[in-house]
Amino acid sequence: MNRIMTSMRMRFTVRHLYWAACALSLVVQAFSAGPGAAATTLPVLWTAGGHSAGADSAGQAARMAVDRSGNVTVVSGPGFYTAMVVTSYTSTGTLRWQRTVAPLSGTMSANWVAAAPNGDVVALGSTADSHGNAYAITLVRFGSDGALRWRIDPPVTIFRSSVGRLVVDEAGSTYVTYNNAVAKYSASGVLVWTNTIPAGFTTSLALGPDGSDAVVTGNFWGSFNSVIGSFNATTGASRWVATGVETSNDVVVGSGRVYVTGQSYTGAGTPALAYFLTVVSYDRATGARQWRTDSSPGSLAMAVGQRIALAPDGGLVATGYTSPGGYTDWWTVAVEADGVIRWQVLRDRAPYPDEMPSVVFVLADGTTVVSGLGGPLQGPTPTGMSYPQGVTAGYSPSGTLLWEGFSTLPTVWAAALPSGDVCATGGYDAFITCFQVPGAANFQPVLTATPLSGPAPLTVDFTRSVTTDPNGTLISFVTLEYGDSAPGTSGTLDFGDGTQTFALNKTSSHTYNTAGTYTARLTVFYSNGASVSRTASIAVSPSVTPARPPLITASPASGTVPLTVTLTNSAASNPPLISSYTVDYGDGASDQFILNAGDGVPAFNSSISHTYTAAGTYNATLTVFYADATNASDTVSITVNPVATKTMRSTAINLSATLQRNKVNAIGTVVVRSNDGAAVPGAVVSTTWNRPGGTTLTQTATTNSTGSAKFSTGGGRGTYTLTVDGVSKTGYSFDKANSVLSKSVTK
Questions:
Q1: Per-domain residue ranges for the chain?
Q2: pLDDT at 731
Q3: Same CATH fold, 548-641 and 1-30+197-346?
Q4: Torsion angle, CA of 127/128/134/138, rounded to 10 degrees?
């Protein structure tokens, strides 16, 4: 993250020079600027920390996490001179426990903290040497009572280590990115898998809503190019890798899409330099790029996206900073699932060069919460200095500033409590401030669609629910667009006579006849001219109704290696025509067949021979491709067994010795039999003689037609021992465990 900030600061240096030349030519696009109407200042529920700015405290706050019980945990450092500190409070601000994590050497700073579903806490820190260069990371897990579960100091091969993000899934497993790597650890701290993305360093990590995939973003030094990688969350296998021509600083994963925010650069032109806060959508299953939305507060203003969050209705919000007048400020953009901008707002509360948001999330009622360093400036101090504060702001679903909460120290992270209240942390001694958020206005529309996916023709039932506050704004009109060429539905609710509508719940059905992805949109218009939209994404897959589905059979379906199999394939369709088919043999080989020069045929029957040269179980798959770009498959399993191997053993060792003139002649015979008791001729027997005086002699002999191999030696009087070291013959294995291996004779 430090590398990213360094890169961003370098870009802003260039931009400030540019502003000096062209500030007078600024052209501003349509957006909400400044605080607008008076916003509510949130009351403070409680604060903690912030007692000492010295090295004797918990150090600078880095991140915070809230568990399902509302307990708040802050990670900070370096604390108490060298350590990372993990501090946990109840939802009402009572200290639960505080733990320090000492570095193996050097000084440890805090990076991330995450709450596990069972109430455990996982924290991530990085250790720097005396020059401030980070060179190692540390993972620790504490129980809900503060007891240490485990600590891991993963080996880092790059001297200057960088940390991307820490996430804990529903099973309690931990995912962490550092340098260009991603790793998964089980709830007990066991390494499950590691993998990498082809980038200079990672920036963020997000899990899919069903926990099946982990998506990692990364950037390169000195370049706007980025990498997005998707991994199987169970195995760590790479699912896809996509590259972008814009930086990627944060990522979220929706039901069918991956959304990345960062910064795009359009290059030379008008204006000569154009940098935008960018949101890019990728297909979650394939990584295919779908759309990109660029946003900035003016044609010459430069913006960058830092954080992104999903909204409960399927939309998303990205926040970052911009430089509309030579100083940085908050820039927040709400985007539909299809890339259409809902609203965008510039906070613009103080001409101060370091106003930057740190985090964005959306509450259940649709309120967007942005928190970070912001104005108005505080002070001046007795020395005449002014300083920024921590700001947490809430925006309505239409982008109106609803409320603000102010912390006395700059905010670096924030999170929502289960009650809907919000806590923010930042500053020395792990300072934390929790705010009481007012109840949401009771007029949030809800759109549900069932089912969300299926083959064409797909009939979807839509339920639209709209409620209003009896003392709030009247609803005047409601529309529902299905996202295709068909007309939607609408209704007038207020005829101008002052009648108050408290609730509207209606259902409708719509059939999608063509494959594609459609965005249905419910829009509620209010009597004060405001409007709020909710969307639902409908994925309609192609329809295939073959007259005879693909069929593949194998003959034989099993045998010993090498095994030649005849695969019989057939399919028929009317319509559409069959344009081609492929056979994947399951062993890495495959064949493709184009039918009728690509014009298509209504049916086909074919046979293919294929030889499997290694033992194993293989799935041969027939895939048929139709003229309407659809396909269907069938699979057959083939078992290839290894060639059976005979066994042999040495069944006897016969020794004799004679004495002539004080010289001993020792003779040994080794008998070799197969597992069925038959003599094994032609087997090579390796032996070792151990002779009196400690000398040894190795000999090799081949068995004769009776399965016997003879060996001899001589020497002085004493004990002679013949040991069988091994027996070998092609097509046989030596059963050493059940063999006679040694015998002695004394003379």
A1: 1-30+197-346, 446-541, 548-641, 646-746
A2: 84
A3: no
A4: 0
Structure tokens at 270: 């008008």
Percent of the chain predicted with pLDDT > 70: 87
CA 375, CA 699: separation in Å to the nearest integer? 92
Topology of domain 646-746 in CATH is Immunoglobulin-like (2.60.40)
CATH number 2.40.128.630 is the correct assignment for the domain at 1-30+197-346: yes
Pairwise CA distance, residues 642 & 471, whole Å: 80
The string of pLDDT tens digits covering residues 265-290 is 876 444 445 789 999 999 999 999 99
> What separation in angstroms does the CA of 466 have from each of 336, 402, 443, 480?
19, 21, 6, 12
Residue 275 to residue 266: CA distance in whole angstroms = 7
Q: Check residue 348 and give its pLDDT.
A: 81
User: Domain spanning 548-641: which superfamily?
Assistant: Immunoglobulins (2.60.40.10)
The C-alpha atoms of residue 640 and residue 228 are separated, in whole angstroms, by 39
Q: Which of 3, 31, 23, 30 is nearest to 273 (CA)?
A: 23
Place of tokens 């099946």: 212
Of all residues in the chain, what percent are helix, strand and coil, respectively (each to 5)? 5, 55, 40
- What is the distance between the alpha carbons of residues 123 and 86, in angstroms, rounded to a whole number? 7
According to DSSP, the residues that pair with 447 across neighbouring strands are: 464
Q: Pick from 658, 661, 706: which is nearest to 681 by CA? A: 706
> The tokens of 140 are what?
């620790």
How many H-runs (helices) and E-runs (strands) does the chain carry? 1, 58
Could you give the C-alpha distances from 357 to 322, 361, 436, 685, in angstroms and in order? 10, 12, 20, 79
Does residue 546 have a cis bond before it (omega within 30 degrees)? no
Q: Tell me what the pLDDT averaged over the chain comes to.
A: 85
Report the distance separating Cα 36 and Cα 345, nearest Å: 10
Output b/e per residue, 601-634; b: 16+ Cβ within 10 A. Answer: ebebeeebebebeeeeebebbbbbbbbeebbbeb
Residue 340: phi and psi, rounded to 5, are -75, 135
355 has pLDDT over 50: yes
Asked if 215 and 229 touch (Cβ cutoff 8 Å), the reply is yes
- The mean-pLDDT minimum among 448-462, 484-498, 578-592 falls in 484-498
Its CATH architecture, for the domain 446-541, is: Sandwich (2.60)
List the beta bridge partners of residue 422: 416, 435
pLDDT, tens digit, 9 for 90 and up, residues 30-63: 355 454 446 889 999 999 999 999 889 999 999 9
At 216-236, the pLDDT tens digits run 999 998 788 899 999 999 999
Task: Give CA separation, 335 vs 190, 271, 305, 678, in Å.
Answer: 39, 24, 13, 82
Assign 3-class secondary structure to 50-85: CCCCCCCCCCCEEEEEECCCCCEEEEEEEECCCEEE
SS3 assignment, position 522: strand
Token representation of residue 656: 């004799």
